Amino acid sequence: MKRLGILTGGGDAPGLNAVIRAAVKTAIYEYGCEVVGIRDGYDGFLNEGGLVPLGIETVRGILPRGGTILGAANRGNPYARKVIRDGREMVIDVSDEIIKAIKRLDLDALLVLGGDGTLHSAHELYLKGAPIIGVPKTIDNDIGGTEATFGFDTAVTTATEAIDKLHTTAEAHHRVMVLELMGRNAGFITLHAGISGGADVILIPEIPFKFEAVLAKVRQRVDRGYLFSIIAVSEGATPREGHQVFSRAGDEVYVPRLGGIGQVVGEYIEQQGFETRVTVLGHVQRGGTPTPFDRLLATRYGAAAVRLAAEGKFDRMVSLQSGRITDISLEEAIAVPKRVDIHEDAVITARGMSISFGDE
Ligand code: F6P
Known about the structure:
Blueprint: E1 3-8, H1 16-31, E2 34-38, E3 51-53, E4 81-85, E5 88-92, H2 95-104, E6 109-114, H3 116-127, E7 132-136, H4 152-173, E8 176-181, H5 188-197, E9 201-203, H6 211-223, E10 229-234, E11 246-248, E12 257-258, H7 261-271, E13 276-280, H8 292-311, E14 316-321, E15 324-329, H9 330-335, H10 345-352
Parallel strand pairs: 1-2, 1-6, 6-7, 7-14, 8-10, 8-13, 9-10
Antiparallel strand pairs: 2-3, 4-5, 11-12, 14-15
The protein binds 6-O-phosphono-beta-D-fructofuranose (F6P).
Protein backbone atom coordinates (compact mmCIF):
# COMPACT_ATOMS: atom_id res chain seq x y z
CA MET A 1 0.00 0.00 0.00
CA LYS A 2 1.55 3.27 -1.14
CA ARG A 3 -1.28 5.81 -1.17
CA LEU A 4 -4.28 5.96 1.12
CA GLY A 5 -7.25 8.35 0.82
CA ILE A 6 -9.53 9.43 3.68
CA LEU A 7 -12.89 11.21 3.50
CA THR A 8 -15.57 12.11 6.04
CA GLY A 9 -19.09 11.97 4.60
CA GLY A 10 -22.54 12.92 5.88
CA GLY A 11 -23.09 14.98 9.02
CA ASP A 12 -20.18 15.35 11.42
CA ALA A 13 -19.83 13.46 14.70
CA PRO A 14 -17.37 13.89 17.58
CA GLY A 15 -14.43 11.56 16.98
CA LEU A 16 -13.94 12.09 13.23
CA ASN A 17 -10.64 13.83 13.85
CA ALA A 18 -9.54 11.06 16.19
CA VAL A 19 -10.12 8.51 13.40
CA ILE A 20 -8.22 10.65 10.89
CA ARG A 21 -5.30 11.08 13.30
CA ALA A 22 -5.08 7.36 14.09
CA ALA A 23 -5.32 6.40 10.43
CA VAL A 24 -2.65 8.90 9.35
CA LYS A 25 -0.23 7.93 12.13
CA THR A 26 -0.71 4.19 11.52
CA ALA A 27 -0.39 4.56 7.74
CA ILE A 28 2.81 6.59 8.01
CA TYR A 29 4.57 4.99 10.99
CA GLU A 30 3.50 1.38 10.45
CA TYR A 31 3.28 1.18 6.66
CA GLY A 32 5.34 4.10 5.35
CA CYS A 33 2.39 5.12 3.26
CA GLU A 34 1.37 8.49 1.84
CA VAL A 35 -2.06 9.82 2.93
CA VAL A 36 -4.40 12.14 1.02
CA GLY A 37 -7.44 13.82 2.59
CA ILE A 38 -10.51 14.43 0.44
CA ARG A 39 -12.36 17.58 1.50
CA ASP A 40 -16.13 17.83 2.04
CA GLY A 41 -16.99 14.19 1.48
CA TYR A 42 -17.02 12.87 -2.08
CA ASP A 43 -17.19 16.48 -3.33
CA GLY A 44 -13.44 16.76 -2.83
CA PHE A 45 -12.87 14.42 -5.78
CA LEU A 46 -14.72 16.85 -8.03
CA ASN A 47 -13.86 20.29 -6.67
CA GLU A 48 -10.73 22.24 -7.35
CA GLY A 49 -8.57 22.25 -4.21
CA GLY A 50 -10.52 19.28 -2.90
CA LEU A 51 -7.44 17.27 -1.97
CA VAL A 52 -5.02 17.83 0.89
CA PRO A 53 -1.87 15.92 1.88
CA LEU A 54 -2.16 14.52 5.41
CA GLY A 55 1.09 14.24 7.34
CA ILE A 56 2.00 13.79 10.99
CA GLU A 57 2.10 17.59 11.41
CA THR A 58 -1.39 18.00 9.90
CA VAL A 59 -2.97 15.76 12.52
CA ARG A 60 -1.08 17.13 15.51
CA GLY A 61 -3.44 18.34 18.25
CA ILE A 62 -6.68 17.24 16.58
CA LEU A 63 -7.51 14.30 18.89
CA PRO A 64 -9.79 16.30 21.23
CA ARG A 65 -11.34 18.46 18.51
CA GLY A 66 -14.95 18.04 17.40
CA GLY A 67 -15.96 18.45 13.74
CA THR A 68 -13.60 17.25 11.03
CA ILE A 69 -10.48 18.86 9.59
CA LEU A 70 -11.62 17.51 6.20
CA GLY A 71 -15.06 19.11 6.20
CA ALA A 72 -18.31 17.21 5.78
CA ALA A 73 -21.17 17.32 3.27
CA ASN A 74 -24.53 15.74 3.95
CA ARG A 75 -25.69 16.55 0.44
CA GLY A 76 -22.72 14.64 -0.96
CA ASN A 77 -24.45 11.56 -2.38
CA PRO A 78 -22.46 10.72 -5.56
CA TYR A 79 -25.62 9.32 -7.13
CA ALA A 80 -27.66 12.49 -6.58
CA ARG A 81 -25.58 15.64 -6.69
CA LYS A 82 -27.14 19.06 -7.18
CA VAL A 83 -25.32 21.07 -9.86
CA ILE A 84 -25.97 24.14 -11.97
CA ARG A 85 -25.72 23.34 -15.71
CA ASP A 86 -26.57 25.96 -18.35
CA GLY A 87 -28.02 28.14 -15.60
CA ARG A 88 -30.41 25.40 -14.49
CA GLU A 89 -30.29 23.43 -11.24
CA MET A 90 -30.29 19.69 -11.81
CA VAL A 91 -29.49 16.47 -9.94
CA ILE A 92 -26.92 14.18 -11.59
CA ASP A 93 -25.01 10.95 -10.93
CA VAL A 94 -21.28 11.69 -10.56
CA SER A 95 -20.17 8.24 -9.42
CA ASP A 96 -18.21 7.56 -12.63
CA GLU A 97 -16.28 10.82 -12.22
CA ILE A 98 -15.41 9.80 -8.66
CA ILE A 99 -14.18 6.37 -9.77
CA LYS A 100 -12.01 8.07 -12.41
CA ALA A 101 -10.61 10.47 -9.81
CA ILE A 102 -9.74 7.58 -7.45
CA LYS A 103 -7.88 5.84 -10.30
CA ARG A 104 -6.18 9.06 -11.41
CA LEU A 105 -4.94 9.65 -7.86
CA ASP A 106 -3.59 6.12 -7.73
CA LEU A 107 -5.24 5.44 -4.39
CA ASP A 108 -4.59 1.91 -3.13
CA ALA A 109 -7.39 2.27 -0.60
CA LEU A 110 -10.01 4.82 0.43
CA LEU A 111 -11.26 5.05 4.02
CA VAL A 112 -14.83 6.36 4.10
CA LEU A 113 -15.94 7.62 7.52
CA GLY A 114 -19.70 7.85 7.38
CA GLY A 115 -23.19 6.94 8.47
CA ASP A 116 -25.90 5.00 6.77
CA GLY A 117 -26.13 7.10 3.56
CA THR A 118 -22.38 7.49 3.06
CA LEU A 119 -21.75 3.76 3.63
CA HIS A 120 -24.48 2.88 1.12
CA SER A 121 -22.75 4.95 -1.56
CA ALA A 122 -19.39 3.52 -0.44
CA HIS A 123 -20.61 -0.01 -1.17
CA GLU A 124 -21.99 1.10 -4.56
CA LEU A 125 -18.66 2.71 -5.41
CA TYR A 126 -16.84 -0.50 -4.42
CA LEU A 127 -19.02 -2.39 -6.90
CA LYS A 128 -17.80 0.06 -9.53
CA GLY A 129 -14.18 -0.65 -8.67
CA ALA A 130 -13.20 1.62 -5.76
CA PRO A 131 -10.99 0.03 -3.03
CA ILE A 132 -13.18 1.14 -0.12
CA ILE A 133 -13.17 0.48 3.62
CA GLY A 134 -15.93 1.92 5.84
CA VAL A 135 -15.72 3.33 9.36
CA PRO A 136 -19.09 3.65 11.18
CA LYS A 137 -19.75 7.22 12.29
CA THR A 138 -22.91 8.71 13.70
CA ILE A 139 -24.27 10.12 16.93
CA ASP A 140 -27.47 8.13 16.23
CA ASN A 141 -25.77 4.71 16.75
CA ASP A 142 -28.08 3.24 14.09
CA ILE A 143 -25.60 1.29 11.92
CA GLY A 144 -26.07 -2.46 11.79
CA GLY A 145 -23.33 -4.99 12.55
CA THR A 146 -21.57 -2.93 15.18
CA GLU A 147 -22.25 -2.41 18.87
CA ALA A 148 -21.23 1.22 18.72
CA THR A 149 -20.56 4.03 16.30
CA PHE A 150 -18.18 6.74 17.41
CA GLY A 151 -19.88 10.01 18.33
CA PHE A 152 -22.78 8.33 20.11
CA ASP A 153 -21.22 8.35 23.58
CA THR A 154 -20.43 12.06 23.32
CA ALA A 155 -23.99 12.87 22.20
CA VAL A 156 -25.42 10.86 25.11
CA THR A 157 -23.11 12.68 27.51
CA THR A 158 -24.24 16.07 26.20
CA ALA A 159 -27.92 15.06 26.31
CA THR A 160 -27.56 13.70 29.85
CA GLU A 161 -25.97 16.96 31.00
CA ALA A 162 -28.92 18.83 29.46
CA ILE A 163 -31.40 16.67 31.40
CA ASP A 164 -29.43 17.26 34.61
CA LYS A 165 -29.68 21.01 34.03
CA LEU A 166 -33.39 20.87 33.22
CA HIS A 167 -34.01 18.92 36.43
CA THR A 168 -33.02 21.70 38.79
CA THR A 169 -35.06 24.39 37.08
CA ALA A 170 -38.04 22.03 36.59
CA GLU A 171 -38.08 21.27 40.29
CA ALA A 172 -37.67 24.90 41.29
CA HIS A 173 -40.65 26.02 39.17
CA HIS A 174 -42.86 22.93 39.48
CA ARG A 175 -42.84 22.60 35.70
CA VAL A 176 -42.91 19.90 33.08
CA MET A 177 -39.78 20.07 30.94
CA VAL A 178 -39.80 18.47 27.50
CA LEU A 179 -36.39 17.84 25.87
CA GLU A 180 -36.31 16.92 22.18
CA LEU A 181 -33.24 14.90 21.20
CA MET A 182 -31.74 13.74 17.90
CA GLY A 183 -31.40 10.21 16.54
CA ARG A 184 -33.56 10.06 13.39
CA ASN A 185 -35.52 6.78 13.50
CA ALA A 186 -33.45 5.26 16.29
CA GLY A 187 -34.13 6.05 19.95
CA PHE A 188 -30.67 5.21 21.36
CA ILE A 189 -29.67 8.77 22.36
CA THR A 190 -33.00 9.42 24.08
CA LEU A 191 -33.12 6.02 25.80
CA HIS A 192 -29.57 6.18 27.12
CA ALA A 193 -29.63 9.86 28.12
CA GLY A 194 -33.17 9.52 29.48
CA ILE A 195 -32.14 6.72 31.83
CA SER A 196 -28.78 8.32 32.72
CA GLY A 197 -30.43 11.69 33.42
CA GLY A 198 -33.40 10.27 35.32
CA ALA A 199 -36.18 11.32 32.91
CA ASP A 200 -39.72 10.37 33.93
CA VAL A 201 -40.98 9.78 30.40
CA ILE A 202 -38.89 8.51 27.46
CA LEU A 203 -40.46 8.62 24.00
CA ILE A 204 -38.61 6.77 21.23
CA PRO A 205 -39.52 5.86 17.63
CA GLU A 206 -39.45 2.15 18.40
CA ILE A 207 -42.33 2.48 20.90
CA PRO A 208 -45.28 4.49 19.50
CA PHE A 209 -46.80 6.55 22.31
CA LYS A 210 -50.23 7.77 23.46
CA PHE A 211 -50.56 11.37 24.62
CA GLU A 212 -52.92 10.27 27.41
CA ALA A 213 -50.29 7.85 28.75
CA VAL A 214 -47.70 10.66 28.92
CA LEU A 215 -50.23 12.83 30.76
CA ALA A 216 -51.10 9.98 33.12
CA LYS A 217 -47.42 9.74 34.12
CA VAL A 218 -47.22 13.48 34.85
CA ARG A 219 -50.43 13.22 36.95
CA GLN A 220 -49.16 10.13 38.76
CA ARG A 221 -46.02 12.01 39.76
CA VAL A 222 -48.10 14.87 41.16
CA ASP A 223 -50.15 12.32 43.14
CA ARG A 224 -46.89 10.91 44.47
CA GLY A 225 -45.86 14.40 45.58
CA TYR A 226 -43.51 15.31 42.69
CA LEU A 227 -44.68 18.57 41.17
CA PHE A 228 -42.30 18.46 38.20
CA SER A 229 -41.57 16.01 35.39
CA ILE A 230 -38.93 15.53 32.72
CA ILE A 231 -39.97 14.16 29.33
CA ALA A 232 -37.16 13.11 26.96
CA VAL A 233 -38.52 12.78 23.43
CA SER A 234 -36.68 11.55 20.39
CA GLU A 235 -37.12 13.65 17.23
CA GLY A 236 -38.43 10.51 15.51
CA ALA A 237 -40.95 9.56 18.22
CA THR A 238 -44.34 8.69 16.77
CA PRO A 239 -47.75 9.14 18.37
CA ARG A 240 -49.77 5.93 18.14
CA GLU A 241 -52.61 7.87 16.54
CA GLY A 242 -50.61 10.14 14.30
CA HIS A 243 -47.31 10.50 12.50
CA GLN A 244 -43.74 11.73 12.88
CA VAL A 245 -43.23 15.49 12.81
CA PHE A 246 -40.93 17.04 10.20
CA SER A 247 -39.52 20.54 10.08
CA ARG A 248 -38.64 20.26 6.38
CA ALA A 249 -39.71 18.00 3.54
CA GLY A 250 -37.12 15.95 1.69
CA ASP A 251 -36.13 16.01 -1.97
CA GLU A 252 -33.82 14.07 -4.31
CA VAL A 253 -30.78 15.29 -2.41
CA TYR A 254 -31.87 15.86 1.20
CA VAL A 255 -33.69 13.39 3.42
CA PRO A 256 -36.74 14.88 5.20
CA ARG A 257 -35.68 16.72 8.39
CA LEU A 258 -37.32 15.48 11.59
CA GLY A 259 -38.18 18.05 14.25
CA GLY A 260 -41.07 19.50 16.21
CA ILE A 261 -42.49 16.54 18.15
CA GLY A 262 -41.23 18.07 21.43
CA GLN A 263 -43.37 21.15 20.84
CA VAL A 264 -46.40 18.99 20.02
CA VAL A 265 -46.00 16.99 23.26
CA GLY A 266 -45.33 20.17 25.27
CA GLU A 267 -48.42 21.95 23.97
CA TYR A 268 -50.60 18.95 24.78
CA ILE A 269 -49.34 18.76 28.39
CA GLU A 270 -49.72 22.54 28.84
CA GLN A 271 -53.33 22.39 27.58
CA GLN A 272 -54.05 19.85 30.31
CA GLY A 273 -53.14 22.46 32.94
CA PHE A 274 -49.43 21.80 33.63
CA GLU A 275 -46.96 24.62 33.11
CA THR A 276 -44.59 23.27 30.46
CA ARG A 277 -41.44 24.37 28.66
CA VAL A 278 -39.83 22.78 25.61
CA THR A 279 -36.10 22.60 24.80
CA VAL A 280 -34.73 21.34 21.49
CA LEU A 281 -31.10 20.36 22.04
CA GLY A 282 -30.34 20.14 18.31
CA HIS A 283 -26.82 20.27 16.92
CA VAL A 284 -25.26 20.83 20.34
CA GLN A 285 -25.36 17.00 20.41
CA ARG A 286 -23.04 16.84 17.41
CA GLY A 287 -20.44 19.27 18.70
CA GLY A 288 -17.74 19.51 21.32
CA THR A 289 -14.82 17.42 22.32
CA PRO A 290 -15.32 13.64 22.06
CA THR A 291 -15.54 11.69 25.32
CA PRO A 292 -12.62 9.37 26.20
CA PHE A 293 -14.80 6.41 25.11
CA ASP A 294 -15.32 7.95 21.66
CA ARG A 295 -11.66 8.97 21.34
CA LEU A 296 -10.55 5.42 22.09
CA LEU A 297 -13.16 3.81 19.83
CA ALA A 298 -12.39 6.23 17.00
CA THR A 299 -8.65 5.64 17.38
CA ARG A 300 -9.09 1.85 17.36
CA TYR A 301 -11.37 2.11 14.30
CA GLY A 302 -8.94 4.36 12.40
CA ALA A 303 -5.96 2.08 13.00
CA ALA A 304 -7.95 -1.10 12.24
CA ALA A 305 -9.22 0.41 8.98
CA VAL A 306 -5.63 1.04 7.85
CA ARG A 307 -4.68 -2.55 8.71
CA LEU A 308 -7.60 -3.75 6.55
CA ALA A 309 -6.40 -1.49 3.74
CA ALA A 310 -2.88 -2.95 3.98
CA GLU A 311 -4.35 -6.46 3.73
CA GLY A 312 -6.42 -5.42 0.70
CA LYS A 313 -9.67 -6.32 2.46
CA PHE A 314 -12.06 -3.98 0.69
CA ASP A 315 -15.84 -3.54 0.88
CA ARG A 316 -15.53 -4.11 4.64
CA MET A 317 -16.47 -1.95 7.63
CA VAL A 318 -14.64 -1.96 10.94
CA SER A 319 -16.98 -2.83 13.77
CA LEU A 320 -17.14 -3.37 17.52
CA GLN A 321 -18.37 -6.76 18.64
CA SER A 322 -18.22 -7.98 22.25
CA GLY A 323 -15.76 -5.18 22.97
CA ARG A 324 -13.31 -6.23 20.23
CA ILE A 325 -12.62 -4.51 16.93
CA THR A 326 -13.38 -6.72 13.98
CA ASP A 327 -14.82 -6.18 10.49
CA ILE A 328 -17.94 -7.12 8.54
CA SER A 329 -18.97 -6.72 4.92
CA LEU A 330 -20.34 -3.29 4.01
CA GLU A 331 -23.34 -5.03 2.51
CA GLU A 332 -24.16 -6.61 5.87
CA ALA A 333 -23.58 -3.32 7.70
CA ILE A 334 -26.06 -1.41 5.56
CA ALA A 335 -28.62 -4.20 5.14
CA VAL A 336 -30.70 -3.48 8.24
CA PRO A 337 -30.41 -0.25 10.22
CA LYS A 338 -29.99 -0.81 13.96
CA ARG A 339 -32.91 0.09 16.24
CA VAL A 340 -33.55 -0.11 19.97
CA ASP A 341 -34.57 -3.64 20.87
CA ILE A 342 -37.64 -2.94 22.99
CA HIS A 343 -37.09 -6.18 24.89
CA GLU A 344 -33.51 -5.29 25.89
CA ASP A 345 -32.56 -4.83 29.52
CA ALA A 346 -32.29 -1.03 29.36
CA VAL A 347 -35.97 -0.79 28.42
CA ILE A 348 -36.98 -3.41 30.99
CA THR A 349 -34.91 -1.64 33.64
CA ALA A 350 -36.56 1.69 32.88
CA ARG A 351 -40.06 0.22 32.96
CA GLY A 352 -39.32 -1.50 36.29
CA MET A 353 -38.32 1.89 37.73
CA SER A 354 -41.63 3.44 36.70
CA ILE A 355 -40.20 5.39 33.76
CA SER A 356 -42.99 5.66 31.19
CA PHE A 357 -42.54 5.01 27.46
CA GLY A 358 -45.97 6.49 26.86
CA ASP A 359 -47.41 3.19 25.70
CA GLU A 360 -49.36 2.01 28.75
O1 F6P B 1 -27.62 11.61 11.74
C1 F6P B 1 -27.16 12.58 12.63
C2 F6P B 1 -28.18 13.68 12.80
O2 F6P B 1 -27.64 14.60 13.74
C3 F6P B 1 -29.57 13.21 13.20
O3 F6P B 1 -29.66 12.85 14.56
C4 F6P B 1 -30.39 14.41 12.81
O4 F6P B 1 -31.71 14.06 12.52
C5 F6P B 1 -29.70 14.88 11.55
O5 F6P B 1 -28.39 14.36 11.57
C6 F6P B 1 -29.64 16.38 11.40
O6 F6P B 1 -29.09 16.62 10.14
P1 F6P B 1 -28.63 18.07 9.66
O7 F6P B 1 -27.25 18.28 10.20
O8 F6P B 1 -28.68 17.96 8.19
O9 F6P B 1 -29.60 19.07 10.22
